[in-house]
What does this fold into?
Amino acid sequence: MDSDRSARTALIVGAGVAGLTAATALAREGWQVEVVEVGPPDATSGWGLCLTGPSLRALDALSLADTCLAEGYGMSTITHVDAHGEPVGTVRLPRLIDARRPAMAGIARPVLHRILYAEAQRWGVVVRHGATAAAMDQDGELVRVRLSDGTVRTVALLVGADGIRSATRGLLRLVSSRAFHGQMVWRALVPRPRWATGIHQFAGKTGTAGLVPVSKEQAYVFLTENGVGLDGRLPEAELAPRLRHLLEPFPARMAETLPLISASEAVVRRPVLTHFVEGAWQRGGAVLIGDAAHAPAPQMASGAALAIEDGLVLARELGRHDSVGAGLQTFVRRRRQRCRTLVETSVRIVALERARRHDEAYPLIDSCHRLMAEPV
It folds into this structure.
């Protein structure tokens, strides 16, 4: 990468949702961008996610919302169902891009990754796999980064977008402690039932389950399992039988998914972890974004929204300031409270679910979605 001190050069660590979105947003603003990713090109984690209204609004600013809606599944409602199978309320989410398009979209993670990856490359972003940042220091106004393959980059901007277990966060000496909340979240890809035209969430006696369409043909089942330890690993062969067992007590519509899960080739089980970097997110010309800076629990389905917004706001603030340092400081000021609120709200929802106080969790979810609908 050109290290000319007058060039706007950026190195992004991590080719996930946050990293690829930031790469495209910066490239559109004239930055020369390189992304390094320690994993292989096809290493996406999990089956699916929700692109809530704020996600689509930010993606629309990058001309990607319609592509995601076309390849995902557009929807506008969340239906809550009690432990007896009775609907207890439907949340109609605000349509943030316009009244003709859905409020949100379910999408398969590999599909979203492909869309973001292709768009970044279309704008000239270089993505290198098999390497990550191993050391860094500030060199005047520039950042000198040594990669794990021994090569060195000197850039105006370093962006740590390498997730909740961010190594970049350690290199910047920024402190954060992850919290485990006694839950495991499960996901399994299944054929979409015809009745699943929005998100359905079911309260259970020992957990919460639901279904999210990700295309016309597919959906993913999710379940949060309470009262488990962080070291509770299961062999891969036991995942599908265990998930079916956990879903058996749920109402009839969830029961319909049991044979579909038995045919599913893979089930994902992950601990529910959260964290928030309380102090600075930046040092000199380096900054953290996405889960590296703030990771909510999945109950609000908004981790992707924060990551995508981060990439867009970062590029905009850097374009409004003469120095990288000033742009990064304004970026953090704009993002801190919004991200903190979502993380803290998601933790409260986890606690209410574990206490089986679902009737208190539902309005909290609704109010937080409406807060997130406000302009960034």
In short: The chain has a mean pLDDT of 92. The chain has one domain: 9-177+274-372.
